[in-house]
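In the design runs reported in the main text, the only information available to the sequence generator was the tokenized backbone. The following block is the verbatim input for one such run; it is reproduced so that readers can re-run the procedure and compare outputs position by position.
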């Protein structure tokens, strides 16, 4: 079977997707799969690398991503790769795509839409689950409907906030309904971008203005003081299994972009030291959240644990970080599924879902 590993892309998590892909390339079972790397540049061009048929060291695995799109264009021989023609995937039953892309244009339903149109099996959530999980307002409303505990929140629309009287009402209701601190977030961004922790009313306007730079829908949430942050991995299609829980050992309260990707100040604690009841709760709510959005394949569910021991779902990620040092693969490793087995399972789940959909389509 041909496994197309798509990575890179127009996302702030571009470099993380490269690391995830390098890890996957080391772990793939080459007796089963022939791997075709497809690198998407920052500008959105698709570049196809040479087919990989045996394990390669990650540092020499791919040269495509070492060069950005600018040097690719300057490379007259195109020695780094060739332009990828998407119709190579069209209705290709021998292929499966692993879109190893986190964040915008990867995890938000857009690439999933492309792959649906091409009619090719692919790993992970479909369009709806991807788009809903990425949107902090949509996902919160759905999770509420299914009784999943979350922090109190207030959605804010740019059209309302532009009206001075309505803006004053919104600012007042933050104090009355949520209290401080609050977290102000663009509904659709990721990687902590555009998010501000606000400790007092006087800083609220600036934080809202900043969040509106990234989206015209913003969410304001009650901040949990000294929250611990937990994660659970989900694996499966209709009946996903939940992994054990892990904890993000943060140096500081706000797990921001720097601490996520730059300064290496976070460590993963697996298993998280929580009570059996707390573990049962996060596992139960993880599965419920996965099913509520109708996810498939893989998902990571992120929770807050407050000082009183109560858990709240923060968000779910339908294409979580997938480097061999990332939370999601570690959680499965600790739950008895090795990194190579995890990849294999995800590919099988992708093919199963594709076939199940074909059967449904045949009934229409
Ligand atoms: N309501 C909250 N209470 C406490 N901490 C929060 C809250 N919301 C966000 N944070 C902090 O901000 C980080 C990023 O917020 P999150 O909603 O997960 O955004 P992203 O989608 O960018 O990961 C969290 O990991 C946590 O450290
Ligand atoms: Mg997060």
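Verbatim output:
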């Amino acid at each position: 079977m041909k496994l197309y590993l798509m990575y890179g892309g127009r996302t702030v998590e571009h470099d993380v997707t490269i690391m995830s892909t390098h890890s996957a390339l080391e772990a793939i079972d080459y007796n089963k799969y022939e791997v075709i790397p497809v690198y998407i540049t920052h500008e959105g061009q698709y570049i196809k690398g040479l087919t990989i048929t045996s394990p390669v060291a990650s540092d020499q695995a791919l040269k495509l991503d070492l060069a950005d799109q600018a040097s690719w264009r300057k490379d007259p021989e195109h020695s780094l790769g060739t332009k990828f023609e998407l119709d190579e995937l069209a209705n290709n039953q021998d292929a499966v795509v692993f879109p190893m892309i986190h964040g915008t244009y990867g995890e938000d339903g857009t690439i999933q839409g492309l792959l649906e149109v091409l009619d090719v099996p692919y790993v992970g959530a479909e369009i709806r689950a991807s788009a809903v999980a990425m949107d902090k307002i949509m996902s919160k409303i759905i999770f509420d409907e299914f009784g999943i505990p979350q922090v109190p929140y207030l959605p804010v629309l740019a059209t309302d906030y532009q009206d001075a009287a309505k803006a004053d009402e919104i600012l007042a209701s933050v104090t009355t309904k949520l209290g401080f601190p609050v977290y102000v977030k663009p509904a659709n961004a990721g990687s902590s971008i555009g998010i501000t922790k606000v400790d007092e009313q006087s800083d609220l306007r600036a934080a809202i203005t900043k969040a509106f730079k990234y989206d015209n829908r913003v969410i304001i949430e009650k901040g949990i003081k000294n929250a611990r942050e937990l994660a659970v991995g989900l694996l499966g299609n209709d009946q996903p299994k939940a992994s054990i829980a892990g904890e993000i050992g943060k140096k500081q309260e706000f797990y921001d972009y720097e601490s996520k990707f730059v300064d290496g100040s976070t460590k993963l604690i697996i298993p998280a030291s929580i009570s059996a009841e707390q573990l049962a709760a996060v596992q139960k709510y993880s599965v419920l959240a996965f099913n509520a959005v109708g996810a498939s394949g893989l998902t990571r569910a992120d929770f807050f644990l407050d000082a009183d021991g109560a858990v709240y779902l923060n968000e779910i990620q339908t294409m979580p970080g997938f480097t061999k040092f990332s939370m999601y693969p570690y959680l499965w490793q600790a739950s008895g599924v090795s990194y190579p087995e995890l990849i294999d399972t995800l590919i099988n789940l992708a093919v199963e879902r594709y076939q199940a959909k074909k059967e449904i389509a045949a009934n229409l």
